[in-house]
Write a structure and sequence with these properties.
By secondary structure, the chain is α/β, with parallel strands linked by helices. It folds into two domains: about 190 residues, Rossmann fold, CATH 3.40.50; about 180 residues, Rossmann fold. It has 14 helices and 13 strands. The two termini are about 15 Å apart.
Length: about 375
């Protein structure tokens, strides 16, 4: 069986992390099937795998525009698939290869195309989200199998697209920092700061988090500082964040780190006193699994699928209620026993997200789709 995987759109955020973990694990668990990996030029993955059944093709620069990457995948890539007589192509994202001459598998890793109208985004972002929504709908119809990274996503798709029910499989993502799992005593000693990590966009909900934090600051100006990591996806939303910080006079308490390296982020997880995750829109959230793997106590949004991911490894707040957010932060800061229990629960829970197990499930899915082709 010949399987093609395109990583061309996985150049940032969770996409790059997903492929960086999945592809080496596929090489570990599958020595039989052929894998044809289409990657950006100078992608380090090409130097990590030297296996007879893995073939890498460097296509375009990783800093080329999203439009160029999309056009390459939709126009040129189908020819490459046909030339190499590929049996199955896996895109690991919402967008399918619409003119693929073979079976296709996609993974729904982005809920924004379905829900963007619920948020006050910049109008340009709404245009792109609308286009992604149309592409996602067509892609799901074209796909032979659809991977949902949580039960929540599967249920959401089944309720809104009942004709797709028979071709949706739940396969969780893995732990992106599995090599950092250690006994809790081996982690860096927690320092006196709170951490949150997500790109700056309305659904990430940093604004309500800051409102909750500001309430605490008004009661006690000695609370730990809040550090925010993440790139700017919506400039207007980011300006709103900065304006609020200035109006509430918490400039000295809130530190905006910007987009930092994954290695640096892992260090921050391991040394933070508490990790806060106020997001209102996720398919899975690798960030939460990373935080759990680093043993940091977590307070997170109660919006699905977040409780499905963390289970008892977090306490939960209503992300739309700054008062509830502030109360949960206060609870974690005041209760050392709770923090220690959450730390232990996190280290245990993250073991569930095992890349070996997930890669085996994906290989079985490839085999099922290939068998369907033969019948």
């Amino acid at each position: 069986m010949k399987i093609a995987i395109t990583t061309l759109s996985g150049v940032g955020y969770g996409g790059a992390t997903y492929f960086r973990n999945l592809i080496p694990t596929l090489a570990k668990v599958d020595k039989i099937n052929e894998y044809h990996i289409f990657i950006q030029k100078n992608n380090p993955l090409i130097n990590f795998i030297h296996q007879n059944n893995f073939f890498f093709y460097e296509c375009i620069q990783n800093n080329d525009s999203a439009l160029i990457r999309l056009l390459w995948e939709q126009i040129i890539f189908p020819r490459e698939l046909k030339k190499r007589k590929i049996d199955i192509v896996f895109t690991a994202k919402n967008a399918n290869i619409l003119f693929a001459p073979c079976k296709t598998i996609i993974s729904i890793q982005n809920m924004e195309p379905f829900c963007y109208r619920q948020y006050k985004n910049h109008w340009k972002l709404n245009i792109f989200s609308w286009l992604r929504a149309q592409l996602t709908k067509v892609s799901m119809k074209k796909a032979h199998r659809i991977i949902a990274p949580t039960k929540f996503v599967k249920k959401y798709l089944e309720e809104r697209f009942p004709k797709l029910t028979n071709k949706i499989d739940v396969v969780y993502n893995g732990n992106p920092v599995r090599n950092y799992i250690r006994e809790s005593t081996e982690f860096a000693k927690p320092t006196h700061f709170l951490l949150s990590a997500s790109k700056f966009i309305a659904y990430a909900n940093q604004f309500n988090l800051l409102q909750g934090y500001s309430r605490l600051y008004q009661e006690d100006d000695n609370i730990p500082p809040l550090w925010l990591a993440g790139g700017i996806h919506d400039k207007l939303y980011f300006e709103k964040i900065k304006k609020f910080i200035k109006e509430k006079h918490i400039e000295e308490k809130v530190k905006i780190l910007g987009l930092i390296s994954h290695e640096r982020l892992v260090q921050l997880y391991a040394s933070a006193l508490v990790f806060l995750f106020p997001s209102t829109l996720e398919t899975f959230s690798q960030i939460l699994v990373e935080a759990m793997a680093c043993g940091v106590p977590i307070a997170a949004s109660n919006v699905p699928p977040i409780p499905e991911v963390c289970k008892d490894a977090a306490i939960y707040f209503n992300p739309y209620d700054p008062k509830d957010i502030s109360e949960k932060i206060r609870l974690l800061l005041s209760d050392g026993v709770l923090r220690e229990n959450l730390k232990k629960a996190s280290l245990e829970r993250c073991k569930f997200f095992d890349w070996d197990k997930i890669a085996i499930e994906i290989v079985k899915l490839f085999e099922k789709v290939y068998a369907d082709k033969l019948t």
